[in-house]
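One example given next:
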Amino acid sequence: MNTAGLGAAEAPVEPQPGLEGLNSTPPPSRDAALGLLRRHLSRIQGGMQERFERESLPGLVAARALAAEMDGLIAAILRYSLAATAGPGRPAGFALAATGGYGRGTLAPYSDIDLLFVSDTPLDAVGRRTVEFMLYLLWDLGVKVGHATRSIAECIEDAKSDTTVQTALLDARFLEGDATAYARFEEAYTAARQEWGLGQFLHAKQIERGLRHARYGDSPYLVEPHIKEGRGGLRDLQTMYWLTRYAFGVEKMWQLVGPDSPGGGLLTAQEARAFRRAWSFLWTVRFHLHYVTGRAEERLTFDLQPVVGARMGYTRHGKQDGVERFMKHLFLTAREVVRLKRLLEPAIERAALGMPALQPAPDEMMRKAGLTLADGKLLFAPDHDIAADPAVMLRIMRVARDRGLELHPLGLRALIRNARYATRLRGQAAANVLFLDILAGKQSAHWLRALNEAGVLSSLIPEWARIVGLMQFDTYHVFTVEEHTIEAVGVLNALERGELDSIAPVASELVGQLQSRRALYAAVLLHDIAKGRGGDHSELGAGIAQDLCPRLGLSPEETETVSWLVLNHLLVSQTAFKRDIDDPKTILDLAEVVQSPERLRLLLVLTVCDMRAVGPKVWNGWKATLLREIYWRVAEVLAGGLSVPERDVRVARAREAASAALEGRPQAEVEHFLGLGYPGYWLSFDPETHARHASMIREAEATGAPLTVRTEVLEDRAVTEVTVYTADHPGLFSQIAGALAVAGASIVDARIHTMTNGMALDTFWVQDAAGGALDAPHRLARLSVMVEQALSGRMRITDEISKVKREPARLRAVTVPPRVVIDNHASNTHTVIEVNARDRPGLLHDVTAAISAQGVQIASAHVTTYGVRAVDVFYVKDLFGLKVENERKLDGLRNAVLAALTTEAKPAA
């Protein structure tokens, strides 16, 4: 509880101006008092918001000012309640205390007010009536109140078995009422805490924090952070405050500075200032969040980030937008909170519970390394000067890894305090050996994360410091750049351990065949090193790698490999998801860039690491299938095989394989089917799919059905295949795409084929919103019904699409400028149209309708989404089956697609 509260007990809160009417004799009626209080509360809230915004008050100053204003109001309400229920001059019989954040003397605009009515003995009927009268007044005022009514004995008994109650009482601050009763409560609770000891409270808070982080975000670098409960947020700062109050009775972190302070100087003056900076900055963000949303909002979502950043004065600077600068400051603050926790908590434990017994180094090697053990965990030897030997900060990581040891919290504390000395290691050969050994060693992501959080990595590699806390303002990436990079290293670790065999089988197999393993780890570390600098981060990053790798001790050959991998780290994924990998030119172009089987292996593994580290929803079976297929096709070309032989030979082989798959069917039926497909059709599917198509066509012709729709769940690819067989006509693709959107399906790929009999055989591969196959029988039936209704004209597609649920409002702040790129060099036989736009229901329907209206035939579509950004690529021909090369026609096509991107159906009212 607050020692400042004792002063308050001796001098109760004075009545606030404007509330004098509550003190009249007799007291005013309840309705009159309520009106007076409402007006006063409105003045408090409106005045505080005006001051905060006009004067740009720091959040912590505003929080304390608001709490002080509420103190006067709460005290006046209690005095009025006593007069109205117990009669003039009757003592309260209890003390009214503030608890929770309000007890600490801080209050956010829309936060709850926590109150404790504490008395020597359980309240009598008059006391209970007074408490009830007061609470109803507060509720009628619209104040959110958390409250408890306890005797002193009940407080101690409840707190003994419940650390939540212990924490609430720790924050208690006297407001009004019986000051002597409060003093007795404070004395009893102080004695009880000493009896219980810090150990149980510390253990409970650590468990509570772990559960909280698991719920609200275990990383301080999530791109939509929870300001209050997430890791590196206000609650983590409050936990440190609770621990120091419990252990030493201090109220401010400055009281822990200096050799004569409790604990003997747990913090330096610089660390105490960092604590206050973080506390004030997070409170400022919190105040803005509350005022912008008009509620107790604690999560900083995408739509709120630009608003809060602008209100706090963050504007564009150089290559960085204001919102990105604001979020970087926030993430650096969160990291600072994590570091302060690692600094302070072990010191509290050591000071309050005693220094752990240092064990002698178990062998000569560890002793010479400057390390020792305590409680079975590794830390620096007390007599070892880290400033004189900064390489010990890398040695401790390697020894911990090799011997399967944890770092002692005091070891992490020493790392943080000495991180700046890592600048002396730059370019040192011995330090380079240590760092590269850690980087390419087992569990390297774990050790890199420790070095990053301690600040050692930024001191060692100045280029790394520029991406720490750097956020990309999109909905695709879940983490900041440096956290994504460490996650990618973790994926590479997992691949080497064989943990992703079922998820990424090819990469898991290839990772053991690599000759340039160390270069691969360096490439993963550096693949996004140039983010935030403007321009193409791949090109800029390749240049940084050329300069940085020799400084890290990599050989010229390794440096060249790393630079090439950084330059091309998006090549495989962009080719797989944006190009038709059945087009021979796609494979030949990629093979020409890669040239080497080893580089292809490295690039495939790097691609998997990069994609899986973006976020949990990015990787799926369909994408894995595309990467796998493109790898084997390019590998076969590089091996001199016949992956891309002459087209006629490939068509003949595909027809032979299809004929074999139809073995047992009448020869006339087989010949009829083989005569239906043009060359492009035979090259687009495997023999099993050809056999399914033959059966489908046979049934349609036998029954004379004008439309046939079949669905097939492909579990290994995590997609559902939808095949439509009907008479071909302009706009058919667009109608089917619209129907599938109405049915809740997301199209990831499509092939469109017109057969020699004039019928269309169109195939769509679709997923649900979670990136999996649609496999429920009712959903499969709905797919077929929606397509049939759309093609028969019984469904107005545009109207139905307008009813489909839109994206959440929080995502609309992320802008995606529409862009159309037409490429006549990517394919020898087709014009390629690439569309970048904001994803929305019916986008594919609108775009393909615009393309068809220009008299252009769509041969295939490849659809990829990156958060709210859709990248759709179409391979098209003109009505004569040729590329679209007339400039006037191309301009018209581009303008029509752009118009479709900027005009969408409005949601139904």
